[in-house]
Amino acid sequence: MLQINITLNYAGVSISGDFLDFDALYEALHKVTGEESDSPHYYSAKMRVYALCYDLRHAMMGNRDITFVENGMDADKMKYMSIITSEKNVYLTIQMLWPELLFVTIALNDFVKLYGAKQSKDRFMYLQDKHNIWDRNIAQVRMFQAAVAACLKEELTPNMFSRTINMLNGRYFSVEGYTTQYVDVLNEQFLQMNKEKRMKSISLMAKRLTELNGDYQNIREIVSEAAARYNCPPDDVKLNVEYPEEIDW
């Protein structure tokens, strides 16, 4: 079962699960997000989901961390069942920064709608469509979002949790045309905080991602001007954002 837990220094979360958990999430994210050429106005947000897929795939290839979890077996059960087996299961583990995770969680609301509309041929009826209600890919994505929500509920006060979930639900917010370079800026700002401030700023990061305030508009303008100057798509513009070589998770 997929598990999401906050990291020791609150820089982000660890996402853990067995090989089948990661494989199912990887496939669902790709199916729901669609091809790169689909929905071009969502391209930037789609790349953020693909980045998560990249880590999931490399974890399945053995290029990320692993943890061992109890599987319920013990000496008495093995004796009763006449078998010898491990008492722990191997869980694959990846890490994700809080601003990045929050943005991907929000973006997946849009991609579920787009995917559901494609499946049902009516974007306003996708939730009622019998195929979408039981769609495995949508269920996997919602399970991932639910795991994010469960982690937030464990760490935030009830009021902060309620406000954050309202922002993550994305009922009145879309990532269509979003200038995702702003996510990099928030990632950098979050990493510069100490442990205590990070904990208090998780809800603030969700607010900044969705309120499209002056800071966001400034980054959007910088990206647009650079794209015009160098005659390239805004998605190709890279800001001077520096991540530490080693993140103190």
TrEMBL record:
Species for this entry: Ectobacillus antri
Protein name, UniProt field: Nucleotidyltransferase
Domain of life per record: Bacteria
InterPro entries, sorted: DUF6904 (IPR054199)
